[in-house]
Design goal:
Rossmann fold, 6-stranded mixed β-sheet, 4-stranded parallel β-sheet
Length: 363
């Protein structure tokens, strides 16, 4: 029987011919089903090349999972502004080129522009679906919803992003980090065996009227903190109350949300009505870090920060090092000391009790 043999050049020619016949072979497409925060099944084709994300905190998670912005087609204009003003924008300056015309700041989609841009999938808030989701789905746009109402829904969108991007292992790494953090915090807090600090979390202020977080968020619980607004009977994500309500709640600690880029602890310290709060008298008013606790990609750092503020004698680790290590794990980038200062709001927390000694450094 005759034996056929091929030279290296002949083999290369055969391979080249096969690629010409079937050029898509190396990047084999597959169709997968994902389940969004509604429990609704969404069918997508991978590889996904373009993703539009309208909720504010989700783009950071996608960047962490995907290793960059190359597939992030569009984001909310408010998200872009916040990212470009912060450290993430310094680490990924190309965010400046991501388009923001597919959605309004209030999350209402621009259906006509979305159809023209033709993203493979759009991620949108589940809440107010009638005005935020239905118009897109009625136009035939593929939409998956997300929610940050609970730890489970936050973990759900991390897992879903992993599926969409074909990077399930990377998403699981972030979820494992979340599990370890919550477990370690719970163990330390059980050992503490003391009353939990009560907090007020301020999102906005106009005169004597305040917007505060109303429900007991899971990241408050993980950090061993109790929301005084929830104790007072509120369950909504955000509520409007007067200064007198804050006085009646008597929180031990007041937090000012980092998403409000004008309100700072100094505004609370000098407020004529809130001067009567023990939290103000004791200097326990803090601007939260520029790290979103409502995401399972980096929220672990924010949880640990909250625990360190609530229990400074228990959580004594070098938090600056934790932030540097965490951002390297998340984004593959090394932070400067100035960037760590910026993330931790060192300048705005200068007059807050124990802050500079616990979180600051000289450089």
């Amino acid at each position: 029987m005759a034996k056929w043999t091929f030279s290296g050049l002949q083999i290369a020619a055969v391979l080249a011919l096969s690629l010409l016949i079937n050029p898509a072979a190396p990047a084999r497409a597959d169709s997968i089903s994902i389940s969004d925060s509604r429990g609704q099944t969404v069918q997508i084709q991978r590889p996904v090349r373009n993703v539009a994300i309208f909720p504010l905190p989700i783009p950071e998670a996608m960047i962490a999972i995907d290793g960059g912005t190359q597939r992030l087609m569009a984001i909310n204009p408010r998200a872009k502004s916040a990212l470009m003003k912060g450290v993430i924008g310094q680490l990924f300056p190309e965010i400046a080129n991501i388009r923001t015309d597919l959605v309004a700041p209030d999350f209402v989609p621009n259906v006509e522009e979305i159809l023209t841009a033709n993203p493979d999938i759009v991620l949108q808030w589940q809440a107010k679906g009638g005005e935020r989701v239905a118009p897109m789905e009625n136009a035939g746009i593929e939409v998956a919803t997300v929610s940050t109402d609970s730890r489970e829904t936050r973990r759900g969108y991390i897992a879903m992003l992993g599926q969409i991007l074909g990077k399930e292992d990377r998403a699981q790494t972030l979820l494992d980090w979340d599990d370890r953090t919550v477990t370690e915090l719970a163990k330390a807090l059980r050992s503490a065996n003391r009353p939990k600090p009560r907090i007020a979390f301020i999102d906005g202020m106009i005169g004597n009227e305040f917007v505060v977080f109303g429900r007991q968020e899971s990241y408050f619980t993980a950090a061993g903190l109790v929301n005084a607004a929830t104790e007072a009977g509120y369950t909504d994500g955000s509520i409007k109350v007067g200064a007198e309500a804050l006085l009646s709640w008597k929180p031990d600690i007041v937090f000012v949300n980092y998403y409000n880029d004008t309100l700072q602890p100094a505004d609370i310290f000098k407020h004529p009505v809130l001067a009567g709060l023990d939290a103000v008298k004791n200097g326990r008013v803090y601007k939260t870090p520029a790290i979103d606790p409502a995401t399972a990609a980096g929220g672990e750092l924010a949880c640990l920060w909250l625990a360190k503020i609530g229990y400074p004698d228990i959580f004594v680790s070098d938090f600056r090092s934790e932030v540097s290590k965490g951002f390297h794990e998340l984004y593959g980038k090394d932070l400067t000391a100035t960037q760590v200062d910026q993330l931790l709001q060192i300048s705005w927390n200068g007059a807050s009790a124990g802050y500079v000694s616990a979180f600051g450094t000289s450089h």
